[in-house]
Amino acid sequence: MTFEFHPVNIENWSDFETLIESKGSPHSCWCTAWIDVAKKSKKAEKSEKKSAIKNRVESGIPIGLLAYSNSEPIGWCAVAPRDTYKNLGGDETKEQVWSVVCFFIKRSFRGQGLTNLLLNEAVAYARNHGAKYIEGYPVAPESPSYRFMGFKPTFEKANFRFIKNAGTRRNVMLREL
């Protein structure tokens, strides 16, 4: 099976929207778990989250990559400059760092190595945009939460090295580019 990968931009926003609103997707968070969206006094509504992500795209701020099969959006990897996120727990001594914070693969395409391919594409995308490092925050495969951030063995396979723990489940992993 052949896959194509493209950064989310205004031209393919509707593909991103279709994927994120599909069954089993992160449609309740719109990949904003690590982004300031809500006013200080309340939690953001789904529409606010969607609007916040779309505003980033319209402003030219990278948000991530879509995976396609036969022109159908089937996967997603959130990858962007680390300074566009909050509270990731990474190595703050490093500069020009990009972060990988979310994966979503449509159920019918899971188990085909697409997460590995998306991670490799994310590394190349960050490198091509001037990143010196890329961080990920994966969990152990048996983790009951944060699974959307990927699994530690996937990052190890892509030559990321463990730096430290971020909370009780997430691992900060870094790769020099």
Query: What is the β-strand count?
Result: 7
What is the count of helical runs? 4
Number of structural units classed as domains? 1
The first-to-last residue Cα distance is 28 Å
Helix- and strand-based class? alpha+beta
User: Which term fits the overall shape?
Assistant: globular
Q: Outline the biggest β-sheet.
A: 7 strands, mixed
Low-confidence parts: none
What does this 3D model show about the protein?
One of its GO terms (molecular function) is acyltransferase activity, transferring groups other than amino-acyl groups. It comes from SAR86 cluster bacterium. InterPro entries: Acyl_CoA_acyltransferase (IPR016181), GNAT_dom (IPR000182). With 177 residues, the chain is of the alpha+beta class. The protein has a single domain (4-176), classed as Aminopeptidase. The protein has helices spanning 13-20, 46-58, 114-128, 152-157, and strands at residues 4-7, 64-69, 72-81, 97-105, 133-136, 161-166, 170-176. Strands 1-2-3-4-5-7-6 form a 7-stranded mixed beta sheet, with helices on both faces. It is globular, with a radius of gyration of 15 Å.
